[in-house]
């Protein structure tokens, strides 16, 4: 009643037994016969409204007994403009300690009404078993006030309860000496007053045991079947589930075991695992104990504490243990167990804000002088103010805070002086911690849990003023003597006492004691954001009060949730990125569940071969084997079976060579044709074909080629001759590859033997790269099964079109959806809704995207953020709300190239559509869809590389042309090398026109925003030919004294000087220690790994001398370079080519005489020498050792330097700030004097 002075109150409906039958007959449909409801409308009024002065209004229902609530409904106040549009739901058994109800996604907020008359029903994802319910309004009609009518749906709940006081237990004794079971089902519900305690234990003499133990607020299940090694060792491994289970609220547990397979469920989280041991049955002797172990000295036990709390509805294999105990059955021993749940009077308060929450109390006088404060706290935050008080002696004050996860006490004696002591470790672990602070005499003592006390000595007796818990008021620190050192406390407190007097927080809430802001009383709102763990691929989850972070170190993935692979999906992708042959890590399923694997990529041919090795590559001789006792060799590959399947499936073709030589050793029995030797395929099936024939044909390659030594047989070995024969062949039916095992069974006769070698698995081609479909009608589309991307989704594809707009893909749910579209000729949008309202990200290009050229799109959505990347344009991202809905719930088909409404369809081509690492087969579906055709017309759509060396294929009406502007090569196909001869006085300098950014290495504690493309990398390549050393090949440098220099040392070896840390000596890499001063062409390629912070270079040096370069580099620079440089490439820039073709460009500075050469072409006609293999690093001082030739760099000026007087240096600077004044010129003692070197120009 809005006229009532009492605004927070409890309503008790009439008993359920009187309402249930009437409700069932008149209101509730017969299809739901056991639901009942409660309706409350105060007499003479149309609903509930609080007073306008109430700071924290709520309405509370007392159901008289614990009930199972399955749904709630709300309505506004009758005949008014008052309604609640958002609210929280809390529940309690006692009406004192409350817990917030959270939906399946962890969302605590319920959507309310939009008017006063409509009814909004909310079905609970998991039911509530409780007596009290509390509705806390969050938002209401801005033109009205809070108004509420509520209904609650549910049914009666029956409970068998036992109370354990920390010293009691229940024993269930078997009828026989031991109980052996192959199947067990154990279920119970519990609520605990402490974070430690044994709930269940049983063990047998042969080593079996089962223990369910609460440890640090989590449940640990130990289970072993017939493994005596584990019984007497300390290596017992637990399966752990749950978190914050000491919150004094009910939690459910279910253990299901069949043989070794176990399902372990705590609340709504389930872990499936296979138990240790050799047996399938669990053998327990004499008894099972619940709530503790009565004999702590019992052999083999490892308990910490007995359980302290309540257990209800405890069932062991269908037996109601608590019911037997209540009925005093002889098989149950109940030691000090009572059968009603005693409720402790522990009431918590939540400090909601890290900036504005506080609780202020007046320090009550102590009869002993000084003061004493005690309380308990729990939090996830590593920093926060717990307590601050001004002392009687101005300006002294005490501060108790959490700092870097430790507890710190600071005594400020003046504005500049202070004394500090610290204690504890990782006190932000989410557990309850007890802290006391007291002053006696001339000491202040701080005690944390069971840690030794820490003290600060005082110069005088002290008395505290007002006490500020959790933070400080927003008023001036001079008025309160309180100032937040970093952040306010965000977490829970309870059991606050001042000078041995407990603080009644209900008086605080009612405004009768102290003051507060941003507090939530009678509940602890802590929430474990790492349960479940949303960090993928083994990422480590950590959290603060409001969010979680993923540490992706060492996983091979990055992104906010470690979703994105840092590796390419295939060797073909590495080639397209500009790499050459070598060992690479590939991730065949991208962001899918499979991890990366290391392979060798052979790029020396037109086809790019992926090579996967195994454990037995040398020839092996076999003797003494029979069909009854055959020789067997199993092959372990450098990739897992699942990775091999993904690699083979994604390749165009695979093959594996079998080299097989024999002497009096047959492959097949010549009488009946039964195999005497065979190999096993990837699926474990026996295969008896050897070489090029199709599966099922028991023949060898010689039969196919019609050159067997005896044409009466299909294999050379079957001729069974005394001389050596050969049946080497290549297996090329890729669905059977790789070979997992070989079996040889006919080498037991005199002089009988076989010699075999199984080659590595070799695959080429990437089937996904050119899997394309063309859309000709706006109403056409391809449809696929619903996206299974509830928590994370990444979508990537290429498109080309001439249409101004169109939907690339769409998938709908009841309310949720996801869509990617070309919304205008230059804008791509990514939109979705997971229940928090529509989200739209858009990337706008400065040039039209409907230019009939290929463009790349990548959209990602996770529980942390969403992002959209188009070509190389800046990444757009948006962080997800910390307490919003998480799951994208879709139920329709996935539409590609159109929508379900057949409107705004896409016209053009889409290729390489990949969703969460899985390539969508567009071509196969397009074959059967009207208005869509497989593939994409145009020369540039083919999988063959028409344009080489970074050349870009551009479609024309009657053909294509190769755009070589971003290639170091020229010619119609970008294959002709551009070479220049240098003399001692010549050099080239190239300056980037705009700042350049490199991928950043984000800390796991940072925002984890995926700001840069996961494919970002820097590539530098060139070739050279010379007969002179030492020599400077090139330098790359920055204004911050960082540089990379590639030189030839005095002995002619190549050295890469790598100096990115100005406070340390540089690393020196020597890819090949031998001399390269041999007049032959050598190719160099340098890659940058994505591991350095984003740097925007503002100023670069063209340096042939200076204080920042080491002496060896200076000497090489002084000698210059005499010889030929060819095919110089840095990312999309070809500096050498630009120097020849753009002499007038402001970006290119040429010094001395340059002469175009054909050294690269001449060298290719003979032999060139690429550098490969491991690198050797020379150590300087105590620098970290490196053993890789893949080097990252940050480049703005590329310098190809010949000998210039080492006394001279030229400074080339470009500033990109809105305004900047350079008012002086850098100079050195022997620097060339430059007239007019004073710049007063705004840049």
From TrEMBL:
Q: Where is the F5/8 type C domain?
A: 48-155
The membrane topology noted for this protein in its Swiss-Prot or TrEMBL record is: Single-pass type I membrane protein
UniProt subcellular location: Membrane
Sorted UniProt keywords: Disulfide bond, EGF-like domain, Membrane, Repeat, Signal, Transmembrane, Transmembrane helix
UniProt keyword Transmembrane helix present: yes
Ranges of residues in domain Laminin G: 161-341, 348-524, 771-936, 995-1159
Its chief place of residence is: membrane
Q: Which family does it belong to?
A: Belongs to the neurexin family.
Q: Which PANTHER family match?
A: CONTACTIN-ASSOCIATED PROTEIN-LIKE 5 ISOFORM X1 (PTHR15036:SF84), PIKACHURIN-LIKE PROTEIN (PTHR15036)
Report what the protein is called: Contactin associated protein-like 5a
């Amino acid at each position: 009643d809005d006229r009532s002075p009492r605004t927070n109150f409890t309503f008790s409906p009439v008993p359920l037994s009187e309402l249930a039958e009437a409700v069932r007959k008149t209101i509730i449909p017969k299809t739901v016969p056991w639901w009942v409801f409660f309706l409350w409308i105060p007499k003479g009024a149309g609903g509930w409204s609080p007073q306008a002065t109430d700071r924290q209004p709520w309405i509370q229902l007392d159901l008289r007994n614990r009930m199972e609530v399955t749904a709630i409904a709300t309505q506004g106040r009758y005949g008014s403009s008052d309604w609640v549009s958002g609210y929280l739901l809390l529940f309690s058994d006692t009406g004192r300690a409350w817990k917030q109800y959270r939906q399946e996604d962890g969302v605590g907020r319920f959507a309310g009404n939009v008017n006063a008359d409509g009814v909004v029903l909310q079905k609970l994802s998991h039911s509530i078993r409780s007596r009290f319910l509390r509705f806390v309004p969050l938002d209401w009609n801005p033109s009205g006030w809070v108004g509420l009518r509520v209904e609650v749906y549910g049914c009666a709940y029956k409970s068998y309860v036992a109370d354990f006081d920390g010293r009691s237990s229940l024993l269930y004794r078997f009828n026989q000496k031991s109980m052996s079971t192959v199947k067990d089902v154990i279920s119970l519900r519990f609520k605990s007053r402490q974070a430690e305690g044994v709930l269940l234990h049983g063990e047998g003499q042969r080593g079996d045991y089962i223990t369910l133990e609460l440890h640090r607020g989590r449940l640990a299940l130990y289970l072993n079947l017939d493994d005596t090694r584990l019984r007497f060792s300390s290596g017992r491994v637990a399966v752990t589930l749950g978190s914050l289970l000491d919150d004094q609220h009910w939690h459910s547990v279910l253990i299901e075991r069949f043989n070794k397979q176990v399902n372990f469920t705590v609340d709504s989280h389930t872990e499936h695992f296979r138990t240790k041991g050799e047996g399938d049955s669990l053998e327990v002797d004499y008894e099972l104990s619940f709530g503790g172990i009565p004999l702590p000295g019992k052999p083999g036990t490892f308990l910490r504490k007995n359980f302290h709390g309540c257990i209800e509805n405890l069932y062991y294999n269908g037996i109601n243990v608590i019911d037997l105990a209540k009925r005093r059955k002889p098989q149950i021993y109940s030691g000090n167990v009572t059968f009603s749940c005693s409720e402790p009077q522990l009431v918590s308060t939540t400090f909601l804000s890290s900036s504005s929450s506080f609780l202020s109390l007046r320090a009550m006088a102590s009869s002993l002088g000084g003061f004493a404060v005690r309380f308990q706290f729990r939090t996830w935050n590593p920093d926060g103010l717990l307590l601050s008080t001004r002392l009687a002696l101005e300006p002294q004050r005490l501060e108790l805070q959490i700092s870097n996860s430790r507890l710190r006490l600071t005594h400020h004696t003046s504005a500049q002086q202070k004394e500090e002591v610290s204690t504890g470790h990782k006190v932000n672990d989410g557990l309850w911690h007890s802290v006391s602070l007291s002053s006696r005499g001339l000491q202040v003592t701080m005690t944390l849990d069971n840690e030794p006390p820490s003290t600060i000595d005082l110069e005088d007796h002290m008395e505290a003023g007002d006490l500020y818990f959790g933070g400080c008021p927003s008023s001036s620190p001079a008025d309160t003597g309180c100032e937040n050192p970093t952040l306010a406390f965000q977490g829970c407190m309870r059991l606050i006492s001042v000078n041995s007097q407990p603080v009644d927080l209900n008086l605080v809430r009612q405004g009768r004691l102290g003051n507060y802001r941003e507090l939530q009383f009678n509940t602890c709102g802590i929430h474990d954001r790492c349960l479940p763990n949303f960090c993928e691929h083994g990422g480590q989850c950590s959290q603060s009060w409001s969010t979680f972070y993923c540490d992706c170190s060492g996983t091979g993935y990055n992104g906010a949730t470690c979703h994105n692979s840092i590796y390419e999906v295939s060797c073909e992708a590495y080639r397209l990125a500009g790499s050459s042959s070598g060992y690479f890590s590939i991730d065949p399923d991208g962001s899918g569940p499979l991890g990366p694997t290391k392979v060798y990529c052979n790029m020396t041919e037109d086809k790019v071969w992926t090579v996967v090795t195994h454990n037995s590559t040398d020839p092996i001789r076999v003797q003494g084997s029979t069909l009854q006792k055959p020789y067997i060799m199993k092959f372990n590959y450098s990739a897992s079976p699942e990775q091999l399947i993904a690699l083979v499936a994604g390749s165009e073709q695979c093959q594996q060579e079998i080299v097989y030589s024999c002497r009096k050793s047959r492959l097949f029995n010549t009488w009946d044709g039964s195999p005497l030797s065979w190999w096993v395929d990837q699926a474990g099936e026996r295969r008896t074909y050897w070489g090029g024939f199709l599966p099922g044909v028991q023949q060898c390659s010689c039969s196919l080629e019609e050159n067997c030594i005896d044409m009466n047989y299909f294999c050379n070995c079957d001729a069974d001759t005394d001389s050596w024969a050969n049946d080497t062949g290549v297996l090329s039916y890729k669905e059977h590859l790789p070979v997992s095992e070989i079996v040889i069974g006919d080498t037991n006769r005199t002089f009988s033997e076989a010699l075999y070698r199984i080659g590595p698995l070799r695959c080429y081609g990437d089937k996904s790269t050119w899997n394309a479909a063309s859309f000709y009608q706006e109403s056409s589309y391809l449809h696929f099964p619903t996206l299974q991307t509830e928590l994370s989704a990444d979508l990537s594809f290429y498109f080309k079109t001439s249409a101004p707009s169109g939907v690339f893909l769409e998938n709908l749910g009841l309310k949720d959806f996801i869509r990617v579209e070309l919304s205008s000729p230059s804008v791509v949008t990514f939109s979705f809704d997971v229940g928090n309202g529509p989200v739209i990200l858009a990337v706008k290009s400065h040039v039209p995207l409907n230019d009939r050229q290929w463009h790349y799109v990548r959209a990602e959505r996770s529980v942390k953020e969403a992002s959209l990347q188009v070509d190389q344009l800046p990444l757009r991202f948006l962080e997800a709300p910390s307490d919003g809905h998480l799951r994208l719930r879709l139920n329709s088909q996935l539409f590609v190239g159109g929508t379900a409404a057949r409107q705004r369809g896409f016209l053009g081509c889409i290729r390489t559509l990949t969703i969460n690492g899985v390539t969508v087969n567009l071509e196969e579906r397009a074959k059967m869809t009207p208005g869509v055709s497989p593939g994409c017309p145009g020369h540039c759509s083919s999988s063959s590389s028409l344009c080489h060396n970074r050349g870009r294929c551009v479609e024309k009406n009657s053909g294509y042309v190769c755009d070589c502007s971003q290639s170091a090569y020229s010619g119609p196909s970008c294959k002709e090398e551009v070479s220049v001869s240098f003399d001692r006085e010549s050099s080239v300098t190239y300056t980037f026109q705009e700042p350049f950014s490199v991928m950043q290495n984000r800390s796991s504690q940072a925002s984890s925003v995926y700001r840069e493309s996961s494919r970002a990398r820097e590539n530098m390549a060139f070739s050279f030919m010379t007969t002179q050393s030492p020599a400077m090949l090139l330098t790359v440098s920055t204004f911050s004294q960082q540089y990379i220099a590639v030189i030839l040392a005095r002995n002619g070896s190549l050295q890469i000087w790598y100096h990115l840390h100005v406070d340390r000596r540089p690393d020196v890499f020597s890819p090949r220690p031998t001399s390269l001063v041999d007049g032959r062409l050598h190719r160099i390629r340098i890659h940058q790994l994505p591991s350095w912070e984003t740097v925007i270079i503002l100023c670069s040096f063209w340096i042939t001398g200076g204080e920042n370069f080491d002496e060896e580099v200076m000497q090489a620079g002084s000698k210059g370079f005499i010889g030929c440089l060819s095919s110089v490439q840095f990312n999309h820039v070809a500096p050498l080519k630009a120097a020849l073709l753009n002499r007038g460009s402001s970006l290119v500075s040429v010094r001395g005489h340059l002469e175009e050469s054909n050294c690269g072409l001449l060298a290719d006609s003979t032999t060139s020498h690429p550098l490969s293999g491991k690198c050797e690093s020379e150590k300087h001082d105590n620098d970290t050792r490196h053993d890789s030739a893949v080097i990252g760099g940050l480049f703005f000026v590329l310098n190809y330097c010949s000998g210039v007087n080492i006394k001279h240096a030229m400074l080339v600077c470009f500033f990109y700030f809105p305004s900047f004044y350079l008012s002086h010129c850098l100079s050195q003692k022997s620097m060339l004097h430059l007239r007019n070197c004073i710049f007063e120009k705004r840049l």
